[in-house]
């Protein structure tokens, strides 16, 4: 089974380097693309939007399913919106979508419009901008390393609204790997009609797996994250 891993904000495909070996040892074929505008701090991010990143993932899905097979999509944080857009574009080609401390972003919603931008760039904010829950388990050394590798996020990806049109996306099973929230909280959010979780109530098969840690389990709990992904893939 081909598994496509999409990183969250400020990260390249290399951010999955400690997770990928556990997936490969389980017999999965791993793909960790670095999406447009995120290869280097010197990239031109002026024309990059959420739709740009979704189109890149859809192109890879089409390439990998040319023989009629399916793929699994994994998205961390803001990457969850990217993979959900790809599910909407190709629902029949996705066996499962897995959201790592993320969820399927609803139609019309942006990933994060509040992040401060410098022109076309959204730099990694100061750590004081994140909550203690997000930073839990992330050591000082890891924070320093993360900042050293961080690439500015294209502002168009953070602020452009999700565009969904195919209700076939609701037939694709999903797994939420919850690291900063719980299964109980997901139920409360869905039950209260929270707009960020609006899609989940319509999805026919939803699993929640808890890994209590911070927002970046690929750094703080890579082995557990790999195991959770393998378990979700089945």
Automatic annotation (TrEMBL):
<protein>
    <submittedName>
        <fullName>Alpha/beta hydrolase</fullName>
    </submittedName>
</protein>
<dbReference type="InterPro" id="IPR000073">
    <property type="entry name" value="AB_hydrolase_1"/>
</dbReference>
<feature type="domain" description="AB hydrolase-1">
    <location>
        <begin position="3"/>
        <end position="227"/>
    </location>
</feature>
<dbReference type="InterPro" id="IPR052897">
    <property type="entry name" value="Sec-Metab_Biosynth_Hydrolase"/>
</dbReference>
<dbReference type="InterPro" id="IPR029058">
    <property type="entry name" value="AB_hydrolase_fold"/>
</dbReference>
<dbReference type="Pfam" id="PF12697">
    <property type="entry name" value="Abhydrolase_6"/>
</dbReference>
<dbReference type="GO" id="GO:0016787">
    <property type="term" value="F:hydrolase activity"/>
</dbReference>
<keyword id="KW-0378">Hydrolase</keyword>
């Amino acid at each position: 089974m081909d598994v496509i891993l999409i990183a969250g904000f400020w990260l390249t495909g290399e951010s999955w380097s400690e997770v990928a070996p556990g997936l490969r040892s389980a017999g999965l074929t791993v793909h960790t693309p670095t999406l447009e505008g995120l290869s280097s701090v010197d990239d031109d991010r002026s024309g990059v939007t959420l739709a740009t990143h979704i189109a890149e993932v859809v192109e890879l899905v089409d390439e990998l399913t040319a023989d009629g097979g399916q793929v699994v999509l994994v998205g961390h944080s803001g990457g969850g919106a990217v993979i959900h857009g790809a599910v909407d574009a190709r629902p029949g080609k996705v066996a499962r979508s897995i959201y790592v401390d993320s969820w399927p972003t609803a139609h019309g919603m942006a990933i994060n419009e509040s992040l401060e931008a410098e022109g076309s760039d959204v730099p990694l904010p100061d750590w004081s901008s994140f909550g203690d829950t997000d930073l839990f388990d992330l050591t000082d050394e890891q924070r320093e390393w993360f900042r050293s590798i961080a690439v500015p996020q294209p502002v168009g990806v953070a602020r452009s609204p999700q565009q969904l049109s195919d209700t076939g996306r609701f037939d694709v099973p999903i797994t939420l790997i919850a690291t900063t929230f719980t299964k109980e909280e997901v139920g409360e959010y869905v039950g209260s009609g929270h707009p960020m979780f609006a899609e989940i109530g319509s999805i026919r098969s939803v699993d929640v797996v808890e890994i209590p840690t911070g927002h970046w389990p690929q750094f703080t709990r890579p082995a557990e994250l790999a195991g959770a992904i393998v378990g979700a893939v089945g």
